[in-house]
Amino acid sequence: MDRSNHPCFNVKVRGSHGRVHLPVAPRCNIQCKYCDRKYDCVNESRPGVTSAVLTPMQAIIYLDFIFEKTKNISVVGIAGPGDPFATPEETMETLRLVREKYPEIILCLATNGLGLGPYVDELARINVKHVTITVNAVDPEIGAQIYSFIRYGKRVLSPEFGIKILLEKQLEAIKKLKERGVTTKINTIILPGINEDHIEDIAKKMSELGVDILNCVPFYLNKGSAFAHLPEASKEVVKKIRKKSGSIYPSDVSLRKMQG
Ligand code: SF4
User: Fold this and answer.
1) Domains of the chain
2) Pocket test for ligand 1, best of 21, 27, 29, 35 (most atoms within 8 A of CB)
3) Cα-based torsion angle of the residue sequence 174, 19, 45, 141 in order, rounded to the nearest 10 degrees
4) 157 Cβ below 6 A of ligand 1
5) Which one of 2, 26, 67, 115 has the fewest CB atoms closer than 10 angstroms to its CB?
6) Is the pTM of this model over 0.90?
């Protein structure tokens, strides 16, 4: 398996290699205030995208059909429509089935990280080598402003209390992924007036943990979300933030450098 053939992690193959997302994760275990759950997870998709949810077996049939039609797919990912670890059984079953049928395909995951930790060992065992986690704050006071609730196990926790658990589980999972050599990307949503001056702290923390890429993503307005009133980050603000975090943690630029 040539791990560099991942278009989200290797800018050089963006034109030549494609990816397919399997929508097998219908539910989410947190509520980001910039998300309207009527649509797919906006950590990975633009607002307003809605996917039909598939069972693990349907996902394999769908994949066979895609591979018939499209020959340049190198990556199969699970990134929604909710969070893959709000329904871990379906997610892990799908990954096992894909790995069994397509031993050479790159498997990839995108998650908020809350429920990821307990599955890292098996993910590494079935060669899931690319994981993206959305970390929007490393300071609980700032984080508590970004989420309406966090569901941990059967408990629905207030943002003030839940954010401590979310952050703890995210950092734990990142450590585990890096210990097992999994390429780890962090997406951070730039939220004007909330975390825009905090992204350097996130970059420092992620750099300490040895994360491979930090991707600062501008927030997109989602009419039905709690942040529908928030202005989108201007191009200048996004550029400034990427430059600042880029001095600590290059994103695409480092990738280009890393790949020469
Ligand atoms: S992680 Fe956040 S953005 Fe993604 S589906 Fe859940 S609430 Fe929406």
Assistant:
1) 3-259 (3.20.20.70)
2) 35
3) 10
4) no
5) 2
6) yes
